[in-house]
Predict the 3D structure of the following.
Amino acid sequence: MNADQAKILIVDDETTNIDVLVGLLENQYKTVVAKNGEQALKRAKVAPLPDLILLDIMMPDIDGFEVCRRLKEDAETRTIPIIFITGRESEQDETKGLTVGAVDFIRKPFSPIVALARIQTHVALQRQRHRLLELNAIKNRFLGMAAHDLRNPLNSISGLSEILLTMQLEESEKRSFIQTIHDVSGQMLKLIHDLLDVSTLESGHFALEKRPCDLGALVGERVELLKFTARQKGITIRIERQEILEAALDPDRVAQVIDNLVSNAIKFSPVDGEIVVRVGCEGQRVFVQVRDQGPGIPEQEHHRLFGAFEKLSTRPTAKEKSTGLGLSIVKSIVDAHHGEILVANGTERGAIFTCYLPMADAV
């Protein structure tokens, strides 16, 4: 089953009706069948939960009205939309069905085209509900993250600025306090930028401004800006360039990808280590690869790498701050370019991140 393919539970005690519905839906959806009410109640709770339930009314053990009522009383299944598919035509039945929680009625015999259109509509609505819940969860995590991670820096800025205003200090002390204020305010600004970026990328409300771009030159510019940070840990960054063609990219967004991957490598590299950044092309794609000499990433944690706010077991080598957002931003930008990002561990040590993006003539 495709992870993006919707799942529909068909509940009917007649094999002919089941065959018709399965034949109508199997090319677009994952179908699961229950032949009575008890089976329906059990299979409705099998993960992943159905995106829609097609429910007959007349069944031998528990009728469809009672099945619907029980599903709507259960916190685990109450949000699954239910369509009654029935040969019964009375207004009382339709009213009762809507009262117990159904979203629609399809009457037998039905037009396959009309039935499929109505099913597609309700599946799409359910997917939109799921997406809204995900976005709401992201928003709540943003708020919690911001409140937690901004509080301590703000306390530092408030306390140090009060000392500067109220106490007589030596010039060296003043400079030390001002430097600390500058550093923590920079951390706060980075966090706010990351939160805003993830919010925009996750909502899908952002547009890439693609244009022909020399990826090798862009990598060189971004690495040059990060060399000062690397030198503070005695780390050298070496660029290996192949001859590459122009790629249709959003340079500002791809710059974020490069910045995050190289900054991540600096954080997890040992003092006096080396980072190698390779840039070139393979087939119809250009690539940027960043290899560090850090501890690498445990295989069992690879699936969590690109989630927002994820903190893995490996830690920055100089206790640098990390929001857990950088790789999530990278993945969203690469996906928006219809590219691919891969991660692997080196044969001896270190992590290797490889970002592939389509070339201009392949877009």
About this structure: The domain at 135-203 is CATH 1.10.287.130 (Helix Hairpins).
